[in-house]
Amino acid sequence: MNTPHSSVFRRSLLTVLVALALPVLAACVAGPDYIKPAQDLPADFKEARGWKSAQPADTLPRGQWWEVYGDAELNALVAQLDVSNQNVQLALAQYRQAQATADAARASFSPTLGASAGASRSDSGSKTANSFKLGLDASWEPDLWGSIARSVESNDASLQSSAASLAAASLSAQASLVQNYFQLRVTDASIALQTRTVEDYRRALQITQNQFAAGIVTRSDVAQAQTQLKTAEASLIDLGVTRAQLEHAIAILIGKAPARFELGSKTSLAPLPELPLSLPSSLLERRPDVAAAERKVAAANAQIGVARAAFFPSLSLSGSAGYQASRVSDWFDVPARVWSLGASLAATLFDGGLREARTRNAIAAYDATVAQYRQSVLGAFQEVEDNLVALRLLADEAQVQEQAVAAAREAQRLALDQYKAGTTSYTSVISAQSALNSAERNALQLLGRRYTASALLIKAIGGGWQGLDAY
């Protein structure tokens, strides 16, 4: 037997079923599907032609690219970066924020369920009445036009971009630490060299003073020797300033106050490792900053869909069920039961061009991210090319500089022998000694530049080459 209540229920149920069928029938999802921006990339590196590829040892841990330098002290320092470096910790916190935002966007697919309870007492003058309510409320907005799906897609891409940014922050800190560490070790070697130079100049001053006492040379020779010695001592002090500042920089990188960090002196340096080449396609997979830029493009593309979905009507479904009675003990009686089902369709008819403006804004934002992505790729190639040519030409320069050091060392020996024999002036000795000191310091500076170029090249190819996972 049909009752008024059952007829209402059937009509309400039919309304809900039709509304639920609309998402299935809707064939249109707002916004364009994402396509990775095209980029005209070269097949190889300009500065890599003729470069000899190395074969790294298979025993090297995956991703631990700094271990190719074979320095245990450096390895221990880098191990502290991800735990203590504050820039890495900042990127990690931003990643966790992006993760929470993506989860929040995905929650929009689910209905909202709430519970309520209440009690009231009213007096109409002739009668006092109590009312007790207990109910459940549910609401859901079906994603008819893909607005929520595009929002989730955008936030997922942003999460991936944040993960890549975290990897980029870690890689940048690692490369900075490697550069500062080897610059400090080169400074140690320079301090050792300058210390030996000071001792040589001190002995030369003693020789000059002995010859002056014997009446062989003039007072001006002694003054020149003293000037040369004091200048060398001043340079030695200046190297101490450089070393201290590099040590401070390393302390900050590993998250320590400079007062609580000390790195002992070491003058021996392992040979520079030979580095293999990475093809452009591998570069795009390994560079976390490039990956982050590409994921931002995907996020911006999905936002176009979110903006366009606002042009279509939205459907809301709601329902509630519960009990209402003048006494709590009557809640579960049939007359006390209450329920409702409903659906509403809403659309904006006029907004003064707001939705159109938001769509144009989303498209412009997408175009901006495409430009940033393409610029990131070009910048990545420039970094590889710059450091490839630096390593290649600095290696050639280092060979020539070693020849210059050998020639300057021989010239100093000859000048000093001639001065002792009284066949040349002390000016010739000073000139030869200064030339040798300059040549030796240039050789060490070249070594530091080669270590820097080596670390920057590894960073430019994404931080290693041995089976790294794509970011």
TrEMBL record:
Compartments in which it is found: Cell membrane
Chief location category: membrane
Organism domain of life: Bacteria
SUPFAM superfamilies: Outer membrane efflux proteins (OEP)
Alphabetical UniProt keywords: Coiled coil, Lipoprotein, Membrane, Palmitate, Signal, Transmembrane, Transmembrane beta strand
Name recorded for this polypeptide: Efflux transporter outer membrane subunit
Database matches in Gene3D superfamilies: Outer membrane efflux proteins (OEP)
Residues spanning the signal sequence: 1-26
Keyword Coiled coil tagged: yes
NCBIfam families hit by this protein: outer_NodT
Membrane-related topology note: Lipid-anchor
Keyword Transmembrane (UniProt): yes
Coiled-coil ranges (or none): 381-411
Family: Belongs to the outer membrane factor (OMF) (TC 1.B.17) family.
